[in-house]
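Problem 12. The chain below contains 236 residues. Write out its predicted structure in token notation.
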Amino acid sequence: MISEIDITFNFYSDTPSGKDPDSFSPTLRAYHKALWSKELSDGQVFELSDQQKGSYLYHNSPIGEFHLSSDAITHTYSSWRVMKHIISQLPSSEIEEFYHIGSTIGAYLIFPGNKVNGKMTINGSRGTNRHIKDRFDLTLECIRRYYSNDDSPLKETLDRYPKFFGLFNSFEEYVDFFLLHDLVAKDYSGIKFWLKFKGFENSPLPRDIEEYKFYKESVINFVRARNLRIVESCQK
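Solution.
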């Protein structure tokens, strides 16, 4: 039940060792099902099922058929070799705190999990695209541009899922549905980037320890704020 969601729960705690919570945490799947099974702006209910074989979460109704998967939307980069020289300058306790906060429900989202014409999903594309490097703030900027029909590094991928993004009609509705308000301006006109945004041609990774600290605090603040929004949404 939604009322039983614990925003402090670490999804690695009920995930088998060495496995990914996105696939193996039963609590994470239950939370996703509870949170995102709700009414769309047109009054139709986006009811999710966890009983469809081969699908993490599933919806099938007159509004369409959807296979959804879970994805972590924060990243410590602590295991990335290219970032070792920066992260090694921080106490391990700080990285552990960052990792723990990124293992709570505020740091997870669902995306379409089915490949279209054998091509990468959104999860796969945003993780491998050199302009994104798994940063969700940059992903959300791409989604914002999708709704305004502007170009972005993920445009080709996002264009493969028009029915999913069509569920929300606009960027504002997408943000409202998934409780992403703390990552956008109050008027939805722009993204509150985790690092200063100078265009997609610049490296998305922090360049030094000061940038990494700024990035880390930005991500932590976002997850904490989104967790509180989730609590509020459960009380309505």
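Discussion. The radius of gyration is 17 Å. Students who got a different answer should revisit the alignment rule from Section 12.3.
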